[in-house]
């Protein structure tokens, strides 16, 4: 491994002409006398570079003396070595549906296609039954109450029309499988082998699910040769067209754990039901304030931003799209008969619950995740559906299907629709969502009557305005798209709307991928994990990393547990902070779910942005703010909401995740034989609490175990989550034919373009799309001597030059939607 030559702006000149860096007036850590020659780190030569290129070394650089330096023009930079050598890690394989040559019991051998067809009638019957139940409930007036926490959760997890249709199909085949398992008394470990012998196309279920199976997804040459991604993520893999497409299934790294081998939630190892998810949440998860010393809330927020790009697990709904009721209005269990459609998985609240008992509530509603049609086209256990594209492709900005993408475009000059505000494009907000419930604040909270111009926001993903800072992150990426489109239009006056839109989209996605792998992931996973798997971006040249055999799809383990680590980092309050870094206002989360009103106040977006770079994230630990565990989606004035930790635990069971111990084993941490075997990674007090709620160490839910682990070296999370997260981000990099630094693909950038993309940082996107004047170059890290607040004009926050896009790139052929 040899060091590539340093780009000129990184080279420190002997005695630079020190022009005074504009200093902010507020109290920031004093910048020590900068050095001109960078010290060595453990024998590694280091150079002065823009700080954002030192994220992977942050922990060392932070505690090392003399690491604040000056770039060639005198602006602050950071001394750090080159990115370390990347190894080529091995991703986990998907577990086989039928492991080895399991001998099927004789009576299971008799299961033939006629039995499948007979069972499919029952599957169809279940569907009719469920429609009947929905009708009866409606007639009885048992419907979801507007503005209730349940209604807001339904809005958050709302399926697309396509997802609804697919789920209806998949529901029949899953029920068929359930019936067969019962009729033939198939043992759980034989379910895979027994069922996967049947292709749906060879049974009466033929018409089911055929829209999504590999066989029915076609990709024309134009699409395959396009330098631009399809909006729905299809045709990325040249042979497996559906891999990563929206409305396709999640995959797994361990076989599912369902009690019946198909869809019913796992039981405790002793055969009893598992402890209630709310009981586990109360016993283990408290609200203790443990802010990070060095990481800002931007780190949490960018995590949620990625979450909304990579995944959307819609809940099941009634046929007409209305939400399903799973607990009565007063928070009690529904009668058996009213839950007979099988789509409910409500959480039982113990009678003596310290919080919900005050409101007499014994039931927290949860609706089962939408079912996917299996991409292998076979009969088997339940698979769940991702409504977004699985790739890191900014589907939350652009949409995951052509219809939505079309609605978001102006069809002029490649731009996206906005809500224009006074002052110009740097004040634009997200466009309005028609017909949605009001996103205004009640008068008791804001002190004023709800203004008539305040609208809910619309974006590529339906959760864009779930919190004010989520909306903030969406807004700056929206503005960046339009800013880039305007700049490209100036450089290339001949480009039409489509070309401008696609080229801009390609650049913005590349920027997001670069920020993720260069600035964000190093903090999450730590340097050694990044290098071990080969996740670090290159400093120059092209990557040859693409593996056409690797399925990039999101894993159940990732969406159902590991990537929810972010919930532990959430702060109960969002801060509006001014340029002097003085907190002007603090918003209590429970009052601001799906409220956009604050964004209509001039100047607030900048204050949210500075707040994001000022407030610390919470650490990842078994502690969660009560805004999420008691007041999630609270209805104004009611005093209670939902418990997100309980929802996470229950969702893990819904998605068929194995218990925590199985993933410890997979990840090489080693299976714990008993509770005390956890002492390598858990505090004694936590083990004690595990013992109180779980019957066996093999019962612990993955989410619960994951957030309670001691941190892996250099990582923001423990080793088991680190391992699952790293595996997913490896698949997203190596399994994406359009990954930004790949060479030799139709969609590859030129080297000059790529080097410009590499200058991207989140700080630059903040600076270029707001009125913020000063910010630290590494926005995921607190300001410090090696990350001082600098002017947005400063070269400490490098700028991309778009000139390499000036007619330089002439695609031979590219796909254009009609
Ligand atoms: C205030 C901030 C947040 C709120 C209010 C919130 C709320 C929620 C809710 C209500 C769900 C659905 C639960 C279910 O029905 O299963 C969810 C899922 C999820 N959250 Fe969060 N979340 C927040 C922040 C984050 C962050 C910071 C991350 C990651 C870094 C994250 C990652 C996830 C993931 C991966 C899922 C699963 C998504 C899906 O299946 O579609 N969340 N969140
Ligand atoms: Ca996506």
UniProtKB/TrEMBL annotation:
Keywords annotated in UniProt: Glycoprotein, Oxidoreductase, Peroxidase, Secreted, Signal
Principal location class: secreted
Subcellular location, record wording: Secreted
Glycoprotein in keyword set: yes
Pfam families in the cross-refs: An_peroxidase
PROSITE patterns listed in its UniProt record: PEROXIDASE_3
Protein name as annotated: Chorion peroxidase
Organism of this sequence: Daphnia magna
């Amino acid at each position: 491994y040899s060091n590539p030559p340093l780009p000129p702006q990184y080279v420190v000149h002997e005695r630079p002409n020190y022009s005074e860096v504009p200093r902010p007036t507020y109290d920031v850590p004093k910048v020590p006398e900068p050095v001109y020659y960078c010290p060595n780190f453990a024998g590694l030569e280091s150079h002065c570079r823009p700080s954002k290129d030192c994220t992977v070394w942050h922990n060392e650089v932070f505690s090392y003396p003399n690491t604040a330096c000056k770039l060639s023009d005198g602006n602050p930079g950071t001394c750090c070595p080159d990115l370390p050598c990347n190894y080529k890690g091995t991703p986990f394989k998907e577990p086989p549906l039928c492991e080895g040559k399991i001998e099927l019991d004789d009576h299971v051998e008799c299961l033939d296609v006629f039995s499948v067809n007979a069972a499919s009638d029952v599957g169809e019957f279940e569907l009719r039954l469920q429609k009947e139940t929905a009708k009866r409930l409606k007639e009885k007036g048992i419907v979801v109450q507007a503005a209730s926490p349940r209604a807001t959760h339904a809005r958050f997890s709302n399926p697309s029309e396509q997802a609804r249709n697919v789920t209806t199909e998949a529901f029949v085949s899953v029920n068929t499988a359930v019936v067969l398992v019962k009729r033939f008394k198939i043992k759980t470990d034989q379910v895979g082998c027994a069922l996967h012998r049947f292709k749906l196309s060879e049974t009466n279920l033929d018409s089911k699910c055929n829209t999504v199976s590999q066989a029915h997804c076609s990709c024309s040459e134009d699409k395959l040769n396009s330098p631009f991604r399809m909006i729905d993520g299809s045709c990325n893999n040249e042979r497996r067209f559906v891999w990563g497409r929206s409305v396709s299934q999640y995959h797994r790294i361990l076989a599912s754990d369902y009690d019946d081998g198909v869809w019913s939630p796992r039981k405790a190892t002793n055969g009893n039901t598992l402890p209630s998810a709310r009981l586990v949440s109360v016993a283990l998860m408290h609200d203790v304030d443990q802010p990070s010393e060095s990481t800002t809330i931007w780190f949490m927020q960018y995590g949620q931003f990625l979450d909304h790009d990579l995944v959307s697990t819609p809940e099941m709904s009634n046929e007409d799209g209305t939400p399903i009721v799973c607990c009565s209005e007063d928070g009690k269990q529904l009668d058996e008969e009213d839950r007979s459609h099988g789509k409910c998985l409500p959480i039982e609240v113990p009678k003596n619950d310290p919080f919900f008992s005050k409101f007499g509530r014994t039931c927290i509603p949860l609706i089962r995740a939408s079912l996917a049609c299996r991409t292998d086209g076979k009969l088997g256990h339940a698979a769940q559906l991702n409504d977004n594209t699985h790739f890191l492709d900014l589907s939350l900005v652009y949409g995951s299907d052509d219809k939505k993408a079309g609605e978001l475009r102006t069809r002029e000059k490649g731009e996206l629709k906005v809500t224009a505000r006074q002052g110009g494009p740097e004040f634009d907000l997200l466009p309005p969502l028609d017909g949605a419930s009001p996103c205004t604040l009640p008068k008791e909270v804001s002190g004023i009557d709800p203004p008539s111009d305040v609208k809910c926001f619309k974006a590529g993903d339906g959760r864009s305005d779930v919190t004010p800072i989520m909306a903030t992150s969406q807004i700056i990426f929206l503005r960046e798209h339009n800013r880039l489109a305007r700049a490209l239009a100036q450089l290339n006056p001949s480009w039409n709307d489509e070309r401008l839109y696609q080229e801009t989209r390609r650049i913005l996605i590349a920027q997001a991928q670069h920020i993720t792998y260069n600035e964000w992931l190093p903090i999450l996973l730590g340097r050694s994990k990044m290098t071990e798997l080969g996740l670090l971006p290159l400093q120059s040249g092209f990557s040859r990393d693409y593996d056409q055999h690797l399925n990039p799809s999101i894993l159940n383990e990732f969406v159902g547990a590991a990537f929810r680590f972010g919930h532990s980092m959430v702060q109960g309050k969002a801060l509006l902070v001014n340029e002097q870094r003085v907190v002007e206002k603090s918003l209590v989360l429970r009052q601001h779910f799906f409220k956009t009103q604050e964004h209509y106040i001039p100047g607030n977006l900048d204050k949210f942005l500075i707040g994001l770079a000022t407030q610390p994230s919470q650490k990842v630990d078994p502690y969660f703010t009560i805004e999420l565990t008691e007041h999630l989606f609270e209805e104004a004035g009611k005093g209670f909401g939902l418990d997100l930790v309980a929802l996470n635990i229950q969702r893990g069971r819904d998605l068929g995740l194995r218990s925590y111990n199985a993933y410890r084993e997979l990840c090489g941490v080693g299976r714990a034989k008993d509770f005390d075997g956890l002492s390598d990674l858990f505090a004694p007090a936590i083990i004690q609490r595990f013992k109180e709620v779980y019957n066996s160490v093999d019962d612990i839910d993955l989410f619960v175990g994951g957030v309670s682990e001691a941190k892996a070296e250099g990582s923001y999370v423990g080793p088991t989550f680190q391992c699952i997260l790293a595996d997913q981000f490896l698949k997203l990099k190596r399994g994406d034919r359009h990954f930004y630094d790949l060479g030799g693909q139709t969609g590859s950038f030129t080297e000059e373009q790529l080097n410009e993309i590499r200058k991207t940082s989140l700080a630059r996107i903040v600076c270029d799309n707001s009125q913020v004047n000063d910010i630290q170059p590494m926005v995921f890290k607190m300001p410090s001597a090696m990350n001082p607040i600098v002017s947005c004009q400063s070269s400490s926050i490098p700028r991309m030059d778009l000139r390499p896009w000036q007619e330089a790139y002439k695609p031979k052929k590219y796909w254009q939607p009609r």
